[in-house]
Amino acid sequence: MFSSLAILFGFGCLTGVTTVLFGFGGGFLTVPAVFAVLAATDGADAMHTAVATSTAVMVVNALSATVTQARAGRLRREYVFPLAIFVGIGAFLGAVAAGHVSDTALHLLFIGYLVITLGDNVIRRGFVTGTDPAAAPRPLGRATSTVGGVGIGAVAAFLGVGGSVLTVPLLRRSGLPMAEAAALANPLSVPVALVGTLAYALAAPPITAPGYLGQVDLVAAAALLCGSVPTIALTRRLPRRIPDRVHALGYLGFLGLVLIAMVTMVFVRI
Question: Where, by residue number, does the polypeptide cross the bilayer (predicted)?
Fold first, then answer.
């Protein structure tokens, strides 16, 4: 038990760093981490619990990082609203839908999502190289803010990933530098985290083991947050002058590592 909590604490620390640098809020780290710990013990509904716990952790991480980025003046209101409202609507739909798929299917969909995202960002122009720094960023269209927002929220809550993996490329291709796109991912993850956590906490059937609220593992969430919250506070104080292209490549590299970990876990379970 202690070793599992220590592992989650360590991943929580790493989550704090990626929340500030990439706007992940924790999803791409907390889902594999919680899944691995649970799969190594009882394994029952490990993926559903991992996704539910991830959304709970993101509530705190995303809010904390949002406050930090707002104080630093990195948030642009026009890219947050009304997109965040429709992201929240989609998050509810995604969280409800996740309860109707098997644990194995959810695991494979998580992997498929990573493959598609990585492939899209590598093949399509605009993510790694960015746009002309002299050009003004383009505003989001109405369809992107409404229909696109619902889609982002649904996928993010369904997989427990916060939405940054969709919003960062979207904002990047709108002409924003990587640092600003990653910063904006935090407030756009807040509605996913809040709505998703509520849905998973009230999900039926709930997990009846001690330390659970619905499908959320409160003990795992606490261990992760003990690592992430102080790390977010520390990371935001460090000077960050990462070249834009390096920042974008680091984002893709991190997703690649998560993909390898999740694929490996498929064979471990078999």
Answer: 46-67, 79-101, 147-171, 183-203, 215-234, 246-268
Tokens describing residue 1: 């038990």
Q: What is the pTM of this model?
A: 0.79
Whole-number Cα distances in Å, 22 to 163, 216, 250: 11, 24, 9
Instruction: Report how many domains make up the chain.
Output: 1
Please answer whether residues 156 and 87 qualify as being in contact, where contact means their C-beta atoms are separated by less than 8 angstroms.
Answer: yes
DSSP state letter for 243: -
pLDDT band at 172 (very low <50, low <70, confident <90, very high): confident
Which residue range(s) make up the domain with 209? Answer: 1-268
E strand spans, the chain: 212-213, 216-217
CA gap 135, 37 in Å, rounded: 47
Measure the CA–CA gap between 223 and 242, rounded to whole angstroms: 30
Distance CA 104, CA 219 (A): 23
pLDDT higher at 78 or 39: 78
Pairing of strands 212-213, 216-217: antiparallel
Nearest to 12 by CA among 222, 157, 255: 222
Q: Using only C-alpha atoms, what is the Rg of the chain?
A: 17
Up-side HSE of residue 75: CA atoms within 13 Å toward CB? 18
Q: What letter does residue 262 receive in the DSSP assignment?
A: H
Three-state SS at 212: strand
243 pLDDT higher than 80: yes
Among residues 49, 45, 5, which one has the least CA distance to residue 225?
Answer: 5
